[in-house]
Amino acid sequence: MRLPEFSVKQPVAALMLFCAIILLGVVSVTKLNIDLLPDIEPPVVSILTVWPGASASDVESEVTDVIENQVNSVNNLDTLTSKSLDNLSVVSCKFNWGTNLNVATNDIRDKLELTKRDLPGDADPPMLFKFSSSTMPIMAVTITGEKTWPRLYHLVDKKISDELKRVPGVGAIVAYGGLRRRINVYFDVKKLEGFHLSIQQVNQVLAMENLNIPAGSIKTGYKDYFIRVPARYKTIEEIQDTTIGYFNQRPVYLRDGKKSILLLLQKQTGKNTVAVVHGVKERLTEIQKILPSDVKIGIPFDTAEYILLAIKNLRNTLLWGIFFVVLVTIVFLRRFRTAIIISLTIPFSLIISFIFLYIFGYTINIISLLSLIIASGMVVDNGIVVLENIVRHVEHGGRVKPSAIYGANEMGMAVTASTMTIVVVFVPLVFVSGFTGIMFKQLSFVVSITLLASLFTALSMTPMLSSQWITSTPETLKKRKGFLGKFYSMTERHLETVEDGYNRLLGWSLRHRKTVVVLAVVIFASSLSLIPFLSTAFVPEPDSGDVRINFRLQEGTRIEETNRVIEKIIQIMDEVVKPEEYRHSYAFDGATEEGTGVVLGFDEGPNVGEIGFKLVDMDKRDRSAREIANILRERIEKIPGINRLQVTATSPIKSLMMGAGKPVSAEIQGADLNANLAFAQKLERVMGKIPGLRDVAISQKDPRPELWVKVDRAKASSLGLNIAIIAGTLRNYFYGVEATQFRDAGDNFDIFTRFRKEDKDRLKTLPEIPIFTPDGRMIRLGNVAQIINGEGPIEIQRKNRQRIIKVEADIFERPLGDVTEDIKNELKKTGIPEGISVSFGADVEEQQKAFRDLTLLLVLGMVLVYMVLASLYGNLRDPLIIMFSVPFAASGVFYAFYFGGISLDIMTFMGIIMLEGIVVKNAIVLLDYTHLLQKRGEPLFEAVTHAGRNRLRPILMTTLTTIFAMLPMALTRSVGAEVWNALGVTIISGLSVSTLVTLILIPVVYYMFEKRKEERVS
After folding, report:
1. 91 has which bridge partners?
2. What is the pLDDT of residue 715?
3. End-to-end Cα separation, the chain, in angstroms
4. Distance separating alpha carbons of residues 226 and 674, to the nearest angstrom
5. Nearest 10 degrees: Cα torsion 328, 333, 339, 341
6. pLDDT attached to residue 217
7. Burial of 718 per CB tally in 10 Å (0-12, 13-18, 19+)
8. Model pLDDT for residues 457-481, shown as the tens digit of each residue
9. What are phi and psi of 949, to 5 degrees?
10. Distance (Å, rounded) from C-alpha 39 to C-alpha 365?
11. pTM value?
12. What is the mean pLDDT of residues 116-138?
């Protein structure tokens, strides 16, 4: 028993089946997580190694190079990049897409075990960091408190951070700013010399005096007494009273010698972003009640707000699309019950898709909602074709139930073929990896499931409801009086007029076939001529109101000066940004303790600052975030001392997908570092003159001033000294050493020994500092070493174990493809020196990879569509005729892009791919009915014209429902609409032009093939 027959003959069973689907769908919707995008987990594992006090060049040679030598042989490694900074090495291993990251991480961990013996003894053990979209901050929290400032960090760490970590779904919390408690022991160099004490002796005494040692046990009688020496420091006074040595037989005591904190919160992988943020906000409300009165908590940004707003706008777009689809259905069918039958297809199909989203662990995000919008206009197509054929049988005198079964079966092949052509377009996505595959696999899954669900409902629910609800015929409808009768008569006349006009146009076209073919060729060729004038981009960037300012001062600048520049920029912000445009802001400078910010894409250092602020929603302001950012850039550039500046109007979508880097990055590699830098500086000047490029800068940081201590090895050796003793002493004096720890209220605090500030920050102190020989003699550093002024790198970047220099830039009011083409042209003019290679990274590289994958997807999709049609029709000719619809979809897109100023990006490219399967539906319906009429004995000319006239209404209905479903998506200007506007325009323009051409060209081409076949037979 076929599906339509079962549904019509067993209506109660069919009804229960659909009720069960509704029940499961409602449960699934309540359990689905909400997020901005599908979980993006690039196959990248970073290795962080902290070496306190080391310079960037030392980190490169002693840490980065050692680690790279080991991990370079890990399986499936694609690219090895590294950054060597002061105190920190970051080695990033990018694997081939599809690599099991757990296995790769274990392989790296095994390799790192081999490196530990070769790493510096005082370097921290390497840490592994796996990047994914879940590691990007979902929320920022600021904590201020003027009176509580000295102990605010401790308060934040123990009362706020610890509490927030208990919120379900919260992962890591990165803290910027604040004064961290540490027991600082500052030495007076004169007193050290006077008491003839070395700082190493003091460290040893502090460590030996601060102990808590179990000493065994004594068993006597019935008891067992444990012996313990509880000698840990309990108070600061005890530390001060420690005897650190003797001088002239007398003991020497140790005592003789709107600011805010920013917390960036990450969520755990797979957790609901919105739920996590809401949980954090609720906990912060509770925490605020127990904090001191001057401590205030603020939230500069949270991604949940943007997610909910974008999801809400997409939901409204979906509802408006469904409304227009139902409206089109009512206008064409003009029967309330038949319109309800078609309209019910939408919720049933969408509900089924929610069930599968839950089963396969997907989330409700922008991509899944876009998929539902795209599918909402197409899910009614199958029902319309089936219902229209059922109604036609009833109008010709058939009984309702047999007509429902026969009409559905008759259109079964046509609706199956039209559905499968769209579904099969997405099959090649299994071969597409990388960013494109992650972004669109969920889209393909949702669209495919929804359309297959619509096919199921069209062949089951539609005939079942038709057999119960269709009672009226055109004659009875025309005899109706009142508004409904007049409306039916008026619209029927108009529709019949359109059908008659199309029938005459089709007849003329069949008699003037050459003219039609020539016109079609002209339309297609003219659209191809527009391709050189089209621009390309990577991902659409919505105006979310997020603006970020990053700057870097001259190397060696103190953090106090950086903070002063931040205050100047904030003053400029107050002048540029209107109060009604502004919501909130944050600012910080310096570096994270373990370099986590570097891994997340932030620049760090005492001379580095960042300011971010949030504007009100775009519909509440007159200026775009990019315009405001450009004005700020022009003002901030004039501040003295800033040598690198980046002012961007970014968005959570762009940050999640591409990180915090600049979109244009020219990567320069070569054996000669000086030649690389010279060419990079030349390219920087060239790129600075290209329209649309902003904040052009070289990644190679300027060298910072250094003092080199050149030790006379022979003289030092004669005194019993070596490099380790001298360097260790200097490090202790100027950087500091953790001698031991002070335990207070269950927490450990470092006891840190070094020179006091007035001794440490005097240049003349360096040659005069005392160095103690192993036998206790004191030697001045200047006696065994020479102090030389020099320069050293602040950061060293490498790619595949070779140093690399990048020339990076932001884009303003020009597409990515256009500026990239300009850079390539300039490189051809200037020429690339021998021994130097230039390649493009960042968005340019990702765009090239994405377009290459999508082109493959386009070609494979076209081949698979043809193969599906050939399988269903059982011949090779008819699918070829149907495929004539596809090129004209591209023509419509090219015209829309040219006149609308739209760029080809990955979203619009995906729209073109989907059009391959969408536009052939009309040709399938048209050709399938022509075959049916020919089998009934109608001559070729009459079969073609009658099929065109009879199928015009369902073709117009299916086309208009898809177009009107996309219309809100193309026209809306709500928050986040930039992501999906161009996709809506792509599908509307491609489908519109293809349908107009298809209605004429496909019948003409089919007629020409059939005519030739008849002549050959005769």
Report:
1. 47, 82
2. 78
3. 42
4. 67
5. -120
6. 53
7. exposed
8. 888 888 888 888 876 555 555 556 6
9. -65, -45
10. 10
11. 0.73
12. 75
